Amino acid sequence: MLIVADRPGLKRALAAREEVALVPTMGNLHDGHLKLVELARGRSACVVVSIFVNPLQFGPSEDLATYPRTLAEDCAKLERAGASVVFAPSETVLYPRPQRVFVEPPPIAGDLCGAFRPGHFRGVATVVLKLFHLVGPRFAVFGKKDYQQLFIIRAMAEQLDVPVEIVAGETLRAADGLALSSRNGYLGPVERAQAPRLYQVLRECAQALTAGTRCADVEQAGRARLESHGWRVDYVAVRSQATLSPPVRGDTALVVLGAAWLGRTRLIDNVEVLIGEDSGL
Questions:
Q1: CA-based torsion, 118, 166, 183, 193: positive or negative
Q2: For this structure, is 30 an active site residue?
Q3: CATH fold label, 182-273
Q4: Residue 247 DSSP label
Q5: For the segment 160-198, what is each residue's pLDDT rounded down to a tens digit?
Q6: Where are the domains positioned within the chain?
Q7: Which whole-number Å values give the CA distances from 85 to 3, 70, 183, 207, in the listed order?
Q8: Which residues fall within 8 angstroms of residue 175, CB to CB, at 6 or more apart?
Q9: 273 - beta bridge partners?
């Protein structure tokens, strides 16, 4: 496995590679990331994993300065997982001059998580497009846990005619159901014991939808359930998988998304669900 930190090194590392799969990450890797690497290896013999904590996607009061940076440990995990190249640039490598040109994501970027993190998805889309140009992958793998991010990256690739196939990896969970996330490390022992409740509540919401409960009632009940256990809820939302907009009659493939705080830690999760055409919305 090669570890490169600059553009010339990346170009040399990929010079003889005919087809590449890319797994973009911010490091502090866990088994969920490694599962994405495994998925990428099924698409290409050459798997590039980028590790970059992207300042463009952090707000002024967010955890950019304290976000865990564990490059040595990450590289050891990636070598065992069979990655071919680790691209770990500094901020000045990716942004040699102040970034004045950005990718404008679709309007959904201002909803759900975007309503609470203004500019976040603009920063995500911009850095991902830069990585696509630098790495030149045929495939790029993103996890379903960040469902809105996956939707926006897919839309960007399609509407900007980026020749990269976006591959979705299923969410990997701990034995108690908690979605694996780098930010789970912020949870204290009491919070960690309560953290699986978000997934439990979203599953209950999905079950209520299949039973014919109206979307608005499902959302209200999910929020109330979390708040009754001390969570600070940003949203519990039922959306169409196809558009991420509120579902309309005839939508049968839905997703229940939630974002909520346990103490200082913001957790996100989602559950996909299929309902009958005659279900109430």
A1: positive
A2: no
A3: Pantoate--beta-alanine Ligase; Chain: A,domain 2 (3.30.1300)
A4: P
A5: 999 999 999 999 999 999 999 999 999 999 999 999 999
A6: 2-169, 182-273
A7: 6, 17, 25, 42
A8: none
A9: 254
What is the topology classification, in CATH, of domain 2-169?
Rossmann fold (3.40.50)
Per-residue pLDDT of 107-161, as tens digits, reads 999 999 999 999 999 999 999 999 999 999 999 999 999 999 999 999 999 999 9
Strand order in the sheet with 165-169: 2-4, 85-87, 46-51, 20-25, 139-143, 165-169
* Mean pLDDT of the chain, nearest integer: 96
Give the angle 53-58-60 at the CA atoms, nearest 5°. Answer: 135
- Residue 35 reports pLDDT greater than 70: yes
The catalytic residue among 33, 120, 133, 229 is: 33
Cα 166 to Cα 39, 59, 76, 122, 150, distances in angstroms: 12, 26, 26, 18, 8
Assigned token pair, 154: 């897919």
- The Cα–Cα gap between 236 and 153 comes to 22
At how many degrees (to 10) do helices 71-81 and 31-41 cross?
40
